[in-house]
Amino acid sequence: MQTQSTKQSEPLVLKAGDLVEVLSEEEILATLDERGELESLPFMPEMLQYSGKRFRVYKSAHKTCDTMQRSGMRKMEGTVHLTGLRCDGGGHGGCQAGCLIFWKHAWLRKVEDAGSPAPQAQPSAQLLPLLQIGARGPAFEDGSENFRCQATELLRAAPSVLPLLEFGQFSEDVRTGNFGVGWTVRAIGVGVYNRLQRASNKSLPRWARVRGGKEWGYLRGKATGKTPDGRVGIEVGDLVRVRSRKEIEPTLNENLLNRGMGFDAEMARFCGKTARVLRKVDHIIDENTGKMIYMKSPCLVLENVVCEGAFNANCPRAITPYWREIWLEKIEDGGGNGRPNVPAQSAAG
Predict the structure, then answer these.
(1) How far apart, in Å, are the Cα atoms of 59 and each of 149, 270, 291, 322?
(2) In this structure, are residues 174 and 180 in contact, taking their beta carbons and an 8 Å threshold?
(3) Are residues 195 and 244 in the same domain?
(4) Helices within the chain (DSSP H only)
(5) 238 and 155, same structural domain?
(6) pLDDT for residue 125
(7) 319 is in which domain, residue-wise?
(8) Can you give the pLDDT at residue 121?
(9) What are phi and psi of 192, to 5 degrees?
(10) Segments of the chain with pLDDT less than 70
């Protein structure tokens, strides 16, 4: 009787909460092509540190949102996200995006006996050099590095667009434990509403559009001309409250941007909530080009605050929103523990 794990030759069926073990470097190497990829998804250098360790499945990544071409949801095959495992950027120039890592089923084994010891991981002399080569493309003309990562290659790894009314994706959300039935029904309703709003913007005069043609959340940017800065010296570790929609809308232009950074309905769900500032972000890889972008002014990431996919077809990617200081209000801890009052479901690692 096998107690430690399922046989790797058997297809994995993984759901949220399942315990899995990351394979050894040698086993992972056997799944990769000459680019360090499996089904066009790179196994990144940052992932090596987890070889031989055990984690819970956070969510099935049978689909993911397209943040590059804005085509909607894309279909993924045999992939999950693991709780708490975000890219630390160590193999990609210190990128601070903190993306939730994609894990192919072929890189994992399901652990049936949580009490059994994990085997000692054996390093491979071949895997790291392969991954380091795969993490770079030809340098740009100005000499700057050209990075390749799971985010830059996502459209190759998920080439098929999922139509909104392909209801199999939503039944899979429920079956895998990603989302509950009520949450999923709302996501479908919001998606249909937004599609109708986009159609009305193309075909109806402004006076005939529902709520002016605004998508769900009804945010209205009210700033004219250059949007305000409003830096007040918020630092990592500070406890902050997300300002109200009424306070935030005057900082946004008609495209819901503040100095090029967007504020959307998913972020507006956190208005009035408190959280600690987890880190500052001042450089990230441009997903479309692979070039490192350096921000003129850092933005902030809040602890346990992620996009929950509530208004985005149940996307499981749990992207960390970037916050301008002007959208936040620093508050005192008041002698308490200062823990954020964001919903528990937001804690995606």
Answers:
(1) 20, 22, 29, 22
(2) yes
(3) no
(4) 25-29, 127-134, 154-157, 168-175, 181-203, 245-248, 265-268
(5) no
(6) 78
(7) 218-346
(8) 67
(9) -65, -45
(10) 1-10, 121-122, 334-349
Residue 259 burial (CB < 10 Å; 0-12/13-18/19+)? middle
Q: Cα–Cα distance between 170 and 39 in angstroms, integer? A: 23
Do 39 and 61 contact (CB within 8 A), yes or no? Answer: no
Specify the pTM: 0.90
- Residue 215 to residue 71: CA distance in whole angstroms: 16
- Helix or strand or coil: residue 334? coil
Residue 280 CA, distance from chain mean position: 17
CA distance linking residue 219 with residue 249, whole number of Å:
7
| pLDDT (0 to 100) of residue 195 | 92
Query: CA–CA separation, 349 vs 81, rounded Å?
Result: 10
Domain count, the chain: 3
Residue identified by tokens 């605050």 is 305
| Per-residue CA distances from 6 to 10, 18, 103, 111, 290 (Å) | 7, 12, 17, 7, 38
